[in-house]
UniProtKB/TrEMBL annotation:
Source organism of this protein record: Cyprinodon variegatus (Sheepshead minnow)
Keyword field: Disulfide bond, Lectin
CDD domains linked to this entry: CLECT_DC-SIGN_like
Domain C-type lectin: 58-168
GO MF entry, a single one: carbohydrate binding
Name the UniProt record assigns to this protein: C-type lectin domain-containing protein
Length: 183
């Protein structure tokens, strides 16, 4: 049941992001020859049920760790331009998976900038499960409002700090997870 809720939320997020991208770039995909490789990649992805090049698949979701660093906002903007958002970690299996490939500190989609101590994910859901480091979150110096993944745990960190980030998205070949597909 939890997987289904997660997948439905991911699909809603994917639709919102796609609508934002469409509004932002209306018509540019069909008019620009620079986007033809993206169109071919999307078509190939739909046929093979894999994630795009550079992304890693876990369950029915694709993950990407950036190669550049920036603020939490820059990371989120980059994820959105990729048709994704910063990762929302829903269970221990997903946390363990991220631990298997995220080898350095990175932004995750967790933030408490609206109300201190009230952590929310980028999809609007409240944090119900956590993997905080000891004595965290601590809002050190009153300036730690963004979620950082570090050494298989979470830490609150200043949002303006420069870190890599982890993006998450549903692959284009599915509108929801399919637990029976053997993935």
């Amino acid at each position: 049941m939890e997987i289904t809720k997660h997948c439905v939320q991911l699909e809603l997020n994917r639709r919102k992001i796609n609508q934002l991208l469409l509004n932002q770039r209306r018509g540019s995909l069909t008019q620009s020859s620079n986007h033809r490789p993206l169109q071919r990649d999307l078509a190939a992805t739909k046929r093979t049920k894999t994630c795009p090049t550079g992304w890693t698949k876990f369950s029915c979701t694709c993950y990407f760790v950036s190669t550049k660093s920036g603020s939490w906002d820059e990371g989120r903007k980059d994820c959105i331009t990729r048709g994704a958002d910063l990762v929302v970690i829903n269970d221990k299996e997903e946390q363990d998976f991220i631990s298997s490939f995220a080898n350095e500190a990175a932004w995750i989609g967790l933030i408490d900038n609206e109300t201190e101590g009230s952590w929310k994910w980028v999809d609007g859901t409240s944090m119900t499960l956590s993997f905080w480091r000891d004595n965290q979150p601590d809002n050190w110096n009153g300036d730690e409002d963004c979620g950082q993944y570090i050494n298989k745990q979470w830490n609150d960190h200043p949002c303006a700090a420069s870190l890599k980030w982890i993006c998450e998205k549903l692959p284009p070949w599915t509108c929801c997870c399919c637990p029976g597909d053997g993935q």
